[in-house]
non-reducing end alpha-L-arabinofuranosidase
Amino acid sequence: YTIAADKVKAHIQPTMYGIFFEDINLAADGGVYAELVKNRSFEFNMPLMGWKEQKKDGGDGRTEVINRAVERPENAHFIKSYITSDAGFYGFSNEGFRGGMGVKEGEEYSFSVIAKQEGDTNVKLNIELHGDNDAIIGNAELTPTDKEWNRYSVKFKSSATTPKAQLYVWMSGKGVIDLDMISLFPEHTWKNRPGGLRADLVQKLADIKPGFLRFPGGCIVEGRELNNRYQWKKTIGAVDKRENIINRWNTEFKHRPAPDYYQTFGLGFMEYFMTAEDIGASPLPILNCGMACEFNTAELVPLDKLDPYVQDALDLIEFANGDASTKWGKLRTDLGHPAPFNLKMIGVGNEQWGQQYVDRWKIFTKAIKTKYPNIKIVSALGPSPEGKEFDLLNTTFRSLGADILDEHYYAPPKWFRDNARRYDNYDRKGPKIFAGEYAAQSVATVSPQNKNNWECALSEAAFMTGLERNADVVNMASYAPLFAHVEGWQWTPNLIWFDNLKSYATPNYYVQQLFSLNKGTDVVPLTLNNEAVAGQNDSYATASLDKNTNELVIKFVNTSTSAQNVSFKITGSKGYQKQATVTTLKADSKDAENSLAAPTAVSPVESTVDISGNTLKLAIEPYSFKIVRLKNK
Ligand code: AHR
């Protein structure tokens, strides 16, 4: 193999490897959003879903679910409990997500409620956390004092670790009390923000050092029907004013229905922007373009009624970038973030297709470009990289001078290996490419049997050498979906799996991470007999310079079952320090996977190799992905 270290072919964008976030598989509620209470504001279709009435020590009472939709359409329900006994306790338990709440011994939890005493009553609240075998593992007391709605909170520690704790809210003292937004959060969250995100999960995102964060999806942007589309303006500000809606994945896939899957939007647009900022990723919001999910109802907003949708996009740009003299910039400032979020791109529609999409896209694009000519627009090319829908959009958007085209591919591992040259002949002067959703499917596309196995991960690595080699065209790429709860998923494979307490990174995650941490700044040619390495000897390779660290970075993927002894002749360099660092990701079997029990079975291993002159010799194991970093002298 030959590497011409002085012949820069393409600049690698800082955005190159990023993250695709969607609230699917309990990614947000029940996942990264650390709220432990399910249906905290009684807004599910069955308002007491997740809650169970409880009585003890002779306590008694009854509860009404009150609908105040006229005054509070965004948070219509609360409960009114009548405590009818002098003695004992009456109340409710909450089952959390997937049958429990993950709590840890010694950690502090914050219980809060919005409450109102009625008349002269003085109902007292006793909060209990029940662990395994119903043992009480944490408790606290709280007496709401006001006759007007007010928020009350109290902290307590858990004395045990369990993934399936239950929260009990007991009421005592005869009287009537109104309750809403009954909430329990760990004190320890990402950056210890109150009401924040699960630290272990966000840390895994930060560890990728992603170039961008795409949010909030995925199909939830569209909604199964337009009423349940994602509307960013309803996801900011006080959490009790964020209107809950059913999650689009609630009933998807008959094999894993999730009737209790809703969106509380506790993870809303402000949190997405702030998370992107925290982890150094460029924000990439995707907005509904007046189309519901085309896999479902395919409802459309008439073209002459599109204004509010377009306005949402314009207002979002102002919210992200405007200063306090603008309406939406002021709101961001008032929400505690005076500095702009530096939004540079926005997606119009998720995975739309057809002429109906083009018609709406044109209206959005004209409005956005007129007001914000520097904002780049991400345009979808439908659900598949092949077929007539893709061709129509590809041709149309290219002729209309689109900025960035979003290609999606969920396909067998072989497709990924076979497509390592996909971008070699793309028009260098046309739109940039965002490989916005992809994942190798071990069994069949969208099969519930799909695994995050090593063959899939290695094939993705092979494909990604092709993305990187074509970094002058491909500016962004993200695996999808990102998160999945091991007991609550609708889609597989996924990048990161978790339960109520723990999480693990898949082999696919490590591939993404290694590409991102080692992307370098500029592609240089790595060839075999003057050809890019994309399948010869079942090998795939790319090389880049890292001008920030003054290194040459080689990525080599061996998808064959045989070891290979390879040698790289490097030209155009003044020489390298004797020892180079090597990172190897490999597994003995193509079926190898990680799991909660063995989270790092397939994970990177570091070593070193000596270089002689400008020649690097490397022993490459079967079925492995290697990265070598050579430091210039
Ligand atoms: O990633 C899962 C789904 O796949 C996304 O919601 C959608 O955009 C695509 O069809």
